[in-house]
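Incident log, support desk, overnight shift.

02:14 A customer reports that sequence design results differ from what the structure should imply. Their input is reproduced verbatim below. On-call engineer (initials T.W.) acknowledged and began investigating.
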């Protein structure tokens, strides 16, 4: 495939590989008369692929944030006393609180 100077129309002898590189990079090259020219670069397939990957990563990040938020909610729920709504640092201490503060009381109240 022959490339002609955009200014004077003189054929420019570049091989296919060089042409591909020039098209990809949009680098400036010169005809024999010294007219500068360059191919217009289009976003190539790899750029589009990277762009779509970035979108995927962003989307996955948001999805992960949601999962973490839900997990955090669940964790808070698991550490919250179902009787008085008090929060404890861990599930275990919440259960101990539940047992100490509420279950014992009920058992004691039931006893004469
Ligand atoms: Zn020229
Ligand atoms: Zn409680």
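02:41 Re-run completed on a clean worker. Output:
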């Amino acid at each position: 495939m022959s490339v002609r100077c955009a200014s004077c129309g003189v054929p420019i002898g570049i091989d296919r590989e060089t042409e591909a590189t020039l098209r990809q990079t949009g680098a400036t090259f010169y005809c024999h008369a010294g007219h500068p020219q360059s191919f217009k670069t289009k976003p190539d397939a790899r750029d589009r692929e990277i762009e779509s990957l970035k979108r995927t990563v962003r989307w996955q990040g948001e999805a992960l944030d949601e999962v973490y938020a839900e997990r955090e909610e669940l964790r808070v729920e698991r550490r919250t006393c179902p009787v008085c709504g008090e929060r404890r640092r861990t599930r275990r201490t919440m259960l101990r609180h539940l047992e100490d503060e509420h279950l014992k009381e009920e058992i004691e109240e039931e006893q004469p």
